[in-house]
Amino acid sequence: MTVKAPGQDAEARRARLSRLPSLTGMRWIAAMMVFLFHVSLPDFTPFGGEVATGAEWLFSKGGWVGVSFFFILSGFVLTYSARPGDKPRRFMRRRLVKLYPNHVVTFALSMVLFAGATATWKQWLPNILLIHTWIPDYNTFFGINPPSWSLACELVFYLCFPVLHRWVKKINPDHLWGWVAGIAALVLVIPAFSYAVLPSDPPMPNGFPVGVTQAWFVYLLPPVRMLEFVVGIMMARIVLTDRWINIKMIHALGLLIVGYAIALNVPWLYGLNAVCLIPIALLIPAAAVADLRDQPSPFRGRVMNWLGEVSFAFYLIHGIVIIYGTKLIEDGKPYGIVAGIGLWAACALISLGLAQLMYKFVELPMMKHWSKPRGSRDGARPAEAAEGSREAEPVGSGSARD
Predict the structure, then answer these.
(1) What Rg do the C-alpha atoms of the chain give, in angstroms?
(2) Fewer CB under 10 Å: which end of the chain, C or N?
């Protein structure tokens, strides 16, 4: 029997909390917001009439807000977990090994189950290469496995992170809050530019009240979405340089709820990411500081940690389950409230089960092997092996879908 020395439990707890487990748990909440948005869309909802209309309205901003959370979180976590002397080549290897295996698996499933029958090479080739969000065509940027569009943005973020991180580190810490405010103002200007300058035809499907080009520019174009990623980098620097203003997590959550309510009632493009950017940017460091100070958090438990770990796989697989499942039950629509909620729950549980399988048999094995420096894989350089595996930890993955 091993007897722990006094203070050993406290040190272990501090070490665990330094990995910011609340942020891992919050990734699951963001992924579920995306899920609820998708299952309430007119093409996929099991409900009819006022129930369908109400659910669609209530969750109509969930997907947009969830992805914005992922992008800001990505910049925050990569900056918080960055280590001095890390080479860009090693960084990109770890990121690509995290990104691509699950993407390849879900791409193949989508092609076999439904997309392969109609997709042309102009759709599937950009998708597998993760360059499809550069193309302002609805069937391309939302083709094959629709949630994969955000991975194309993340890929650009990762490529730019070493340069962006060095630049942000050069900013005077006393000026970081001003930079965040300036970027938030720029994000507010972008929808106005899109409405004023870009064409509204052809219109977006699903009843979205804007043109395809307008939505693509505001929501899918990687350089535009990189602004949120940079905000995440700056918020991490604010915490690391002791410029945080001690906003409590509960207050940041309240502000996000207010922001979500506003997003439901503003012109459509403003509700995508502009309105909720600041509340999300405050919530993430508030949760991180709560962990560092060992303050109470509802996102930190063992179950939430596991859900957060499988959230990347869940995010990528849930669209396939929804699309294929809708094909199987289409003849029975619309369903009653109880049956419809049951179908939502079944869809979520099936997606979660498949996500666990992907996490265990695809994501973890690939990261454990290929994220390490080449010499460490054969045991030649154990020190570098330890270094290379650090970002395999949940919060070190750099993204809500990583």
Answers:
(1) 21
(2) N
